[in-house]
Amino acid sequence: MDIIPGSKVDIVLDFDWLNEKIDVRRAVVYDLNDKRIVTSQTAPPAGSYNVGKKVKITYLLMGKDGWVRYGINGRLIRIVPDYRLSGSETAQAIEIIPEPGREFFNLRLFYRLQPPLDCGLALFLKKEKMNILNISLGGVKFTHSKDYPIVPKSRLNLTLQIDEQNYDIEAEAMRVSSVSGRMRRELEAVAVKFLNLDKKTQDLLSIKIKEIERKMLYKEAYAED
For 84-94, what is each residue's pLDDT tens digit? Predict the structure, then answer.
């Protein structure tokens, strides 16, 4: 494994795509092998309600182009009240059964930006341009005609355009809701999760989101009264 005893990790205890929430808590690795990983109790502490649930242990690893965060999926099986560290020293710990392998993970997945028009970001569904309500590295929310309703859990083939370059993305519809205002009878709001966003596309989208955010903050800071 890439992590060793003493490694600092961020443990994702709750990963709620539907409500766009993420619960990340810091910990330190105490011991590990292929069958289990023991870490310090998280800060803030994990509770008994977390036992038995799926979690993700994330950590930073230096790559060719800088630091990259990876994640190991697993299941938290118990909270140890008096894990022995050395000699008579004990501490509270959590024990996780890991799944094989690792995957690229970005904690900014849930940061959602409401992009302005003509910002260099566009979204297409079946070659029809959608109106983006908000977007993150993990998914996008857009308006869509009720004439062709989208069903939650359905798979969609989207085209994300970043500075006039097209990237094909498969997505899953997580939530469909109504919109307010005069277009509420014609449009629905669809929140989708990206399924196959490779690291290159994710990096490009991350750079674009940060660029748009900087420009929006600049305009806000220097806006005329």
Answer: 998 889 999 99
